[in-house]
Amino acid sequence: MSPLLDIALIIMAVMAIAFASITVFYKSLVYSAVFLAFLGLTNAAIFYIIGYPLLAFIQIIIYVGSGVLFIIIAVSMLKQPSVSRVSIRSGLAFALFTIAFLIAIAISIGIVPISVGYIGVQELVSYIASHGEISIIILLTVLSFALIASISIAVGDEK
Amino acid sequence: MIGMLAILVAGLFVLVMGIAGLIYNKNLVKMLLSLEVSFNGVILIVLYISWIIYKPLLAGSLVFLAIGLAIGEISIILSILIYLFKTGMLKELDQSEIEGEEE
Description:
The complex is a heterodimer. Chain A folds into two domains: 3-119, no CATH class; 120-159. Chain A has six helices and no strands. Chain A is mainly α. By secondary structure, chain B is mainly alpha-helical. Chain B has one domain: Helix Hairpins (Orthogonal Bundle), CATH 1.10.287. Chain B is 86% helix and 0% strand. Chain B contains four helices and no strands. Chain B has helices at 2-24, 28-53, 56-87, 95-102. The radius of gyration of chain B is 17 Å and the shape is elongated.
């Protein structure tokens, strides 16, 4: 295994540990959800580096893009935030942190030769389609149920 | 090899952090976030185990299904919370304050 690969994976592992700690112990709910999104992005980078591009794509699009965003929106619906302005200094620090995070991920993915074991998209999809029909049916049922239930519960009868 | 070991250590640490958050936090949304953190840790451990036993396709399909189920879980739990808040059945997100009201 290439030493660059090891270095990239160690960097990602340290970042995952740091984001998990911040998510669990940070006081603000919204910022905790934001750091959960960073943890999801770090996991997606790990998936890509160890050779699962499809899982990385799903993790970013579905988990970070819809799941964590839904948590952030729901939290802001549940708890009326007090009107407060973020200072320019902390906003700038957060923006710099985000840029540094994205650069670290891009460098880690860019410089590393994928040598752990590359699982192609077509290979994984055909494996799931041929070996996991029942799992796919269960997943579709659960997601349809979740969609219907969440809409009907959230809209709900207020009486 | 060291890199994959780092993934295992990170997965275990993230899992423990998530469980600690479930025990430590009294806020319902924070508990959900801790559950999601532990879910991320479990995914990393599954990928490491698949690398050890060399079944990458099985692990890939497992993680794929786990991500789908996690999204279903998030949507249902949060919509229940929104409903409880809308109807006034739940006034505080803090679990300790809910228990205090019941006493």
